[in-house]
Every structure is written in C-alpha cells, then in structure tokens.
Give the backbone structure.
Amino acid sequence: MIHLKNINLTLPDFALKDISLQIEKNDFFSIIGSTGSGKSLLLEGMMGLIPFSSGQLFLENRDITNLAVEKRNLAIVHQDFALFPHLNVTQNIFYGVKYHKIPKQTAQKRFDLLVSTLGLEKITRRYPQNLSGGEKQRIALARSLILNPNVLLLDEPLSALDPIFHDEAKELLKKIHDDLEITMIMVSHNFSDVLY
C-alpha cells in the first residue's frame, strides 16, 4: 500500500536517515518515539509538506515522492487539530473539498455519513472556540476523511486531549479504522496510546 524506501530528510539542525517502511492496505500502523525524534517530520514529509532529501515514497506501487500535496491522496490530522477559527464546524469539514475537486453531491454524502458516525449533528454551526478538545479532534478527523484519502496520517492525535477523553478517543479511532477500512499511520510518544 505505502512504501518508504531509503528516506532521508535533512534540516539544518536535524536529520532522519535511511528510513524504510512497508505498510499494508487497511493497516493501523504506529510509529513510537520520544519527543523531538522526528515522528511528525516524517509524516509531514510523507504528506509532501517538507521535501525528502533523498529516497522514494510509493503509494500503491506508484512513486509519489515529488507529487504535489493535493495529488497524493493522503490526509493528515495535526496534533493541535489546526481548525480555522473563522469557520464553523460545517465549513471546516468542507474546507478541502474544493481543492480536491470532489463533486458537491459526493462531498455531501460523505459529510452526512461522517457527521453521523462521529456524532457531530448538534454542533455543525458552532465555531472552534466553542468546542471541547474531543469535539475538535472529531472535526479534524471529519475534515480529513471527507477527502476519502488512501491513507490517514495522525500526528499525536491524543496528546492534546484531557486524560478523561483518551479512552474515548482511542475507541473512536479504532471504530473509524474498522468502519471505513482505511489505512492509518499514527505517531505517538506514548506506548499506551497505540494499544487497543
């Protein structure tokens, strides 16, 4: 499904060296490492937000190493959820649709399914400043999933949540993985976050 081959990513004060991974379709793959070890950097490289210095990235046997971000069919949920404060929940979820040229009717069907699956029906008109951490996480997930990506990249999705929401959020990720049969790659510094 997704294959990293001899990936190197060099920054002025940090480097990832010779990383090779093979992740199968519908896997829930976890990368564990301490804070500052380059986990998020690796996801951003896969997404195309930071160019790899060398190596190749394949998706379904197709080299996507130099492909533009919007053409990779990957989606990322950032640690801080990165919601737009001036957009309500519905607008945040639909945000990427226009850039991926998804037909309006298809996007609406996906939106309806995701709002129902993630329990967002009652908050679609709210703005991010009026949402809990758990609600923000679900909206960030919906915003990524509406694009129907081949792979969903999760950058420490549990670390910004209160401990009380941890188990609920873990169950939610497991449900999404099972129900939507999507390949997920999650990075975390906490081993217990990736145990189900």
Summary: The first strand starts at residue 2 and ends at 11. Helices lie at 39-47, 89-94, 104-117, 133-145, 163-180. The two ends are 23 Å apart (CA to CA). The beta strands are 2-11, 14-23, 28-32, 54-59, 62-63, 74-77, 151-155, 183-188.
